[in-house]
Amino acid sequence: MLLVRSGEACPVEVYLIRRQKSMRFLGGFYAFPGGKVDGSDATEAAFARCRGVDRAETSRLFPEREGVPPLAFWVTAARELLEETGILAAGDRDGRPIALGDPAVAPRVEEMRRRLMAEEAGFPALLEREGWYLDLAPFQYLSHFITPTSSPIRFTARFFLAPLPEGQTPRLFTEETSEGFWIDPAEGVKRYESGDMPMAEPAEAGLRYLSGFESLEAVWRAHGDRRHKFHGVFDDDDPPGIWDPPERRHPSR
User: What is the CATH number of domain 2-248?
Assistant: First the structure.
């Protein structure tokens, strides 16, 4: 999830995390908040808690594969955003956004996150318990990457853009991350190129993409069609690497 906001000294800022160095895959790398689709993310109970997009719309954006409905990726993006930053994109039955500034609401969100991390309950059940619904309308599908055949861990990764919900601020949780901060995408690219900020190609590509916009409003105008903007997919005979470098991207087949 590429969480973005207007910058004070730059057109757009994006939230980055740094993965704990002890992690098996890409330990110590800088990345965007995210993770794998859980079984409960792909259930009818989860989809019943979605507002702003539905199964029909997401299925037009990319096909279902291995029995995972595309809408599950939106649910995963929302859940991982909560787990890794404390941000919850949700509202009540009438569509009113949850107010984390409300002293009666913030502890409920914190408890939801705690129970998720402790695997005490699934995301859909916790949302239902609170009477909340995910607000997925602002989530814009951005890109798709597939790890190469040479990678020791393989997966297909889909990335989304979303605005920072009003009244919420990301927090650093150290179960999986050692840093969390807002950054000018252009500055992030410079730090990557200098070797100061190691990251896999999808993160670097996301930063380069955002660095080309003159304002946050221009970002949202470019995503009015809700379709993804770039992707990287490896062929079977590609050389070793983590992800397809930007200059070698080609359409998936």
Answer: 3.90.79.10
